[in-house]
Amino acid sequence: MAQRAAVVTGASSGIGLAIARMLGQEGYGLTIAARRPEKLAEAAQTLRDEGLEVQEIAGNLADEEVIQSVVAAHKAKYDRLDVLVNNAGVGAGQAVAEITAKRVDLQLDLNLRSLILFYRESIELLREAGAEHRNALVVNTASISGKQGEPWLSVYSATKHGVVGFTEAMNKELAADGIKSCALCPGFVDTPMTDFVKGAVPADQMIRPDDIAEGVRMLLRLSPGCVIPEIIFQQPGGGLTGQPTG
Ligand SMILES: NC(=O)c1ccc[n+]([C@@H]2O[C@H](COP(=O)([O-])OP(=O)(O)OC[C@H]3O[C@@H](n4cnc5c(N)ncnc54)[C@H](OP(=O)(O)O)[C@@H]3O)[C@@H](O)[C@H]2O)c1
């Protein structure tokens, strides 16, 4: 049984899968969660084939009961939580005149509300880890759109600004508990989420999921007296002002 354990949401592809793999390589027992069961099972099997310890829980993470079941399953298997990675997210671009309540809710519920509920459900286990080693960690995948509003992706940008703000608040609220939080703020990353823009921005010019995982690996190495509240990942030159950045 692993000495440390982590939950990673949205881990069936892209950034979440890369972070999960890195955590597994660092010796963490993993619970991974995502929406589509078959895709998630395939990702979990790939990680197990690489020798990593993984359980998977599929479901819609916008649903409060599913969030509770993920944390409960994690506790039942590992009985500790050192790292929580709130990574599942969705982007649905619309011009302001076309915005539908359904798409607003979709993005708010997964990108922001779900992350908040994951903190609440995990806080007891995180506090136990923080009391033990002062280095419990919550990693929240925001976006460069959480630092600068993007046209057409306005609702997505608003949810990701919310992620950055909530992360900041958690760093203040949970510091005494030995729990750190970090918001990841990347521009375009080569994942299925950016397929829509690959005609204009070649995949090989994008940030790689492994770059994001390396940023998280660095966070694991910090001493208890140091917190990195956010990491901005850019393409050289600063990215693509005026275009959606993921
Ligand atoms: N790619 C970029 O350029 C970029 C840039 C900045 C930030 N981000 C953020 O990075 C995070 C990961 O995205 P990615 O680029 O790695 O894309 P991705 O490969 O499409 O991964 C998204 C993950 O979230 C899961 N997911 C989506 N809706 C869900 C739901 N309702 N319930 C549970 N799981 C759900 C997906 O599972 P299913 O496939 O089964 O739905 C998948 O595992 C997101 O928060 C995104 O906003 C991405």
Sum up the structure in keywords.
7 strands; 246 residues; alpha/beta; seven-stranded parallel beta sheet; binds NADP nicotinamide-adenine-dinucleotide phosphate; 6 helices; globular; disordered C terminus; Rossmann fold
Would you kindly provide a written description of the structure presented here, covering whatever features stand out?
It is a single chain. With 246 residues, the chain is α/β, with parallel strands linked by helices. It has one domain: Rossmann fold (3-Layer(aba) Sandwich). Helix content is 43%, strand content 16%. It contains six helices and seven strands. It has a seven-stranded parallel β-sheet, with helices on both faces. Helix 1 (14-25) packs across helix 6 and helix 3 (64-78) packs parallel to helix 4. Residues 241-246 have low confidence and may be disordered. NADP nicotinamide-adenine-dinucleotide phosphate binds at residues 10-16, 34-36, 39, 60-62, 87-91, 110, 141, 143, 186, 188-189, 191-194, 246. NADP nicotinamide-adenine-dinucleotide phosphate binds next to helix 1.
Helices and strands, with pairings:
Blueprint: E1 4-9, H1 14-25, E2 28-34, H2 37-49, E3 54-58, H3 64-78, E4 83-86, H4 101-133, E5 136-141, H5 154-173, E6 179-186, H6 209-220, E7 230-233
Parallel strand pairs: 1-2, 1-4, 2-3, 4-5, 5-6, 6-7
Helix pairs in contact: 1-6, 3-4, 4-5
Bound molecules: NADP nicotinamide-adenine-dinucleotide phosphate.
